[in-house]
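Database export, one record per block. Field names are fixed; values are copied verbatim from the stored entry.
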Amino acid sequence: MKRFQSLSEVRNELTAGTMSCRQLVEYYLGNIERQQHLNAFLEVWADEARAQADAVDAKLAAGTAGPLAGMVIGLKDVLAYAGHSLQSSSLMLDGFKSLFTGTAVQRLLDADAILIGRQNCDEFAMGGSNESSYFGPARNAADPDRVPGGSSGGSAVAVQADMCLASIGSDTGGSVRQPAAFCGVVGFKPTYSRISRYGLVAFASSFDQIGPLTRSVADAALLTEIMAGPDGMDSTASQREVPAYSQLLTPAPHYRIGYIADAINNEGLNPEIKAALETQLDLLRGQGHVVEAVDFPYLDFMIPTYYILTTAEASSNLGRFDGVKYGYRAPDVTDLESLYKKSRAQGFGAEVQRRILLGTFVLSANYYDAYYTKAQRVRRLIKDKTDELLRQYDFLVLPTTPTTAFKIGEKLDPVSMYLADIFTVQASLAGVPAISVPVGEDAAGLPIGLQVMAGAFREAELLAFASTLTEEVLV
């Protein structure tokens, strides 16, 4: 069976009768089995996927199938699916099964998507390489000695290696976009609040956003359209009407495009990524778009601001994992205090502990104003400047990552790992939509990603523009 690039290709085969959903699921199950060394899936729901496929085939025959019929999807291990393990790739949630299905996942099921398994990620979505997972790192299919990015690393690899047509991940500071760039797929983070977070294990609540990883922008648009919208279970979900993104992929003939000069000239930017970005900018100029350099004075402040705020929120959110109610409980305890201390010390990995400690420190009485309050003020400056630029320009273009995929074990120093997020955290701090699209490879055959940001709730325009950047890439 051939590798499908989009749901439309799958539907053509299904309509022609040359393939069934059951055959498609068997194809993906075979690919997962043959590529276990990539460690992309933590659990495969083979029998359930077959049963779902049979049910969708029956609906197709009756003409009652939903818009995602034929879409085989994997879920990052932070999304709740009733009766299925939900572990956040952590020992802390060992043995835990979700008691309910999250809103985004339920909407996929209601549209006749087929869910094939649970995917590896950084522990509690904290990391940029998938190396903090309790189950070991997922591996990049382009070079198994290299990381796939994170925290949605397994989700990106699964799409890259043709183990499913799409994955659903979560993006806090780039956790969908960065692995998408490392793996040569499309990664989309909608506007904050566009998709309900009900059923998403919380890392940093004012940043977290569910988003798809796909092989085509059209599929990202359709999945976002299905998952987005108001939700009575999430008071932070936007009440705005959801456009039919999948029907709005025709771009305007001309756009005003800005690119952050300091990002392109950043000393840490890989020369091949810089060259690929400059080539894309030249192509856009040649197509008649206005392409101009813009100044963004807060580039150096984004990483510290992001990590102060997200670790503070993580410290609060992860306080619920105490060894009492569910999940891991240390066996060698003598009293309540030792239960708390030992369960958390043994149940959380090093990176999660590091972020909890940092977050607790910046929230402490003596340092709250010096760090947390100041970071909130800087976040407002970053958001205001980003919004100002996105009123002047339709889109901002910048690299997704400063380097291509690095080798496993190469960036164990936390500071080096955190700096890898330098280009993705801006959209997260500002709450605006951003997408990473593949624009080629370096000399070693490693994928390169280009990132585009748009104004809040301008997903339709962003997806339409991004579709013109990838139409000849994912072939």
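Remark 1: The chain has a mean pLDDT of 96.
Remark 2: DSSP finds 16 helices and eleven strands in the chain.
End of record.
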